[in-house]
Design goal:
CATH superfamily: Glycosidases
Radius of gyration: 21 Å
Bound molecules: 6-O-phosphono-beta-D-glucopyranose
Distance between the termini: 9 Å
Number of strands: 19
Length: about 450
């Protein structure tokens, strides 16, 4: 059966500054990632750090040409805060030129630039101030956002404030996979609240600028499925949903936090500090569009063991993760593959979040040792094609049932440096050869080109 999409559907890819640009010749200050790598290089897969990125700073023109060849009509990347404002205040003219010329190159090729302000990399000087746990950084971010809106008003009509804002908080304050490697729920909650406030200030600054483009946020939504219909399992899934999805989804889309989440955090004395003015700022920051990153679902069950009363407070006080027997897995990343999850997310947004216009801003499959699949110089990544097809079917079905989903961006265009995993798992439509820096299309690039041409498959 044919899978089709509406006219003017966004077909694109996503990437981010820190994962691709490289340490180019601007006077960028160092980021939290560069700092962390200097301290603990052994924590990065094969000790490949942020300096091993592909250097798209120098080759973006060739990249854009390849995107045009495939037929992309939209593309998301991010601005590096540390590159644009090396001292936190003054914009570097070279960085301004670079971003302007990159965005113009995209536009002139018929590719709509979608630009993220914050995709995991924070200037280290902001981190030294306490990062998202410090209110002063919220104001610094709002200033940075306002500078971007002013500097790139001609080039950019689609802005994203944050990419997956929950991830740096989970990694930095709960599970130790982002700097500053703390384990303190209260700090995570404070950082989450200030991140939401920073998002709201950026949205409100955009409105105040009078520009007529669109602004939104990208959230990684992981639907929580209970192991069974048992009440205890269902409650466990409900709390996981409150903590990991609705903690950003509700304030971003409804302007306020779920009452049950506030009650829960209050009970365990984990509520962040906030003012009435902060809540007003969040309530008034209405977004135009939502980006949904989806890779895998979350399955949970009621806790099996009691909690050690002196152990640090963690989300896992309320549920255990559950691995469903026989589920389809991506063994390289350890993530379940469940395309139905994407359909469920879109249906939930339609039914409970005013059917906000949204696009799938990341979806893809990271696989290790892809050289195994090279035949006649091409990575035959049929598993990736199948993964994307299955997810696209879910999207198409949701759209036919009324979802306001208007686009799909796969992660990612070219294999890139992926934080702690560095180059372990490859996600690209193009293969990046680390030994000589060359890139070449995989089978999925040709497949995607065909899908775009036919607006379906
Ligand atoms: C998303 C991020 O969470 O997942 C990307 O927005 C990241 O920046 C991608 O690269 C894949 O993640 P990982 O951890 O599998 O490399």
């Amino acid at each position: 059966m044919k899978t089709t999409f509406p006219e003017n559907f966004w077909w694109g890819c996503a990437e981010s500054a820190a994962q691709t640009e490289g340490e180019a010749d601007t006077s960028a200050s160092i980021t939290n990632w560069q700092h962390w790598y200097q301290q603990q290089p052994e924590r990065f897969f094969n000790q490949h750090g942020p300096q091993h990125t592909r250097n798209s700073y120098s080759c973006y023109k060739q990249d854009v040409k390849r995107m045009r060849d495939i037929g992309l009509n939209s593309f998301r990347t991010s601005i590096s805060w540390a590159r644009l404002l090396p001292d936190g205040k003054n914009a570097d003219p070279k960085a301004i030129d670079y971003y302007r010329s990159f965005f113009n190159e995209l536009k002139n090729s018929g590719i709509e630039p979608v630009v993220t302000l914050m995709h995991f990399d924070m200037p280290y000087l902001m981190q030294q101030k306490g990062g998202w746990t410090n209110r002063a950084v919220v104001n610094d971010f709002a200033d940075y956002a306002a500078r971007c809106f002013e500097l790139f008003s001609n080039e950019v009509k689609h802005w994203i404030t944050f990419n997956e804002p929950i991830v740096p908080l989970e990694g930095g304050y709960l599970y130790d996979f982002h700097y500053p490697n703390q384990r303190d729920f209260r700090m995570a909650a404070q950082a989450a609240f200030f991140t939401q406030l920073a998002h709201a200030k950026a949205v409100n600054a955009y409105r105040a600028s009078g520009q007529k483009g669109k602004i939104g946020i990208v959230l990684n939504l992981t639907p929580s499925y209970p192991r069974s219909i048992n009440q205890a399992d269902k409650k466990a899934a409900h709390i996981a949903d409150l903590l990991f999805n609705r903690s950003f989804l509700d304030p971003s889309l409804k302007g306020h936090y779920p009452f049950e989440l506030i009650t829960l955090l209050k009970k365990y004395r984990q509520l962040p500090e906030y003012t009435a003015e902060d809540l007003r700022e969040i309530a008034t920051a209405t977004i135009d569009m939502l980006g949904v990153n989806y890779y895998h679902p979350r399955r949970v069950q009621a806790k099996i063991h009691a909690i050690h009363p002196q152990a640090p407070f963690m989300p896992e006080w309320f549920f255990d993760n559950y691995e469903m027997p026989g589920c389809r897995m991506n063994p390289y990343r350890g993530w379940e593959i469940y395309p139905q999850g994407l359909y469920d997310i879109l249906t939930n947004l339609r039914d409970h979040y005013g059917n906000i216009p949204c696009f799938i801003s990341e979806n893809g499959m990271g696989v290790e040792n892809e050289e195994r699949f090279i035949r006649k110089g091409i990575v035959e990544d049929d598993y990736r094609i199948e993964f994307m097809q299955d997810h696209l079917r879910g999207i198409s079905q949701a759209i036919s049932e009324g979802s306001a989903c208007f686009g799909y961006h796969c992660w990612t265009f070219t294999d890139n440096w992926s934080w702690l995993n560095a180059y372990k798992n490859r996600y690209g439509l193009y293969r990046f050869d680390l030994s000589d820096g060359s890139i070449s299309p995989k089978r999925s690039a040709y497949w995607y080109q065909d899908v775009i041409k036919k607006n379906g498959f």
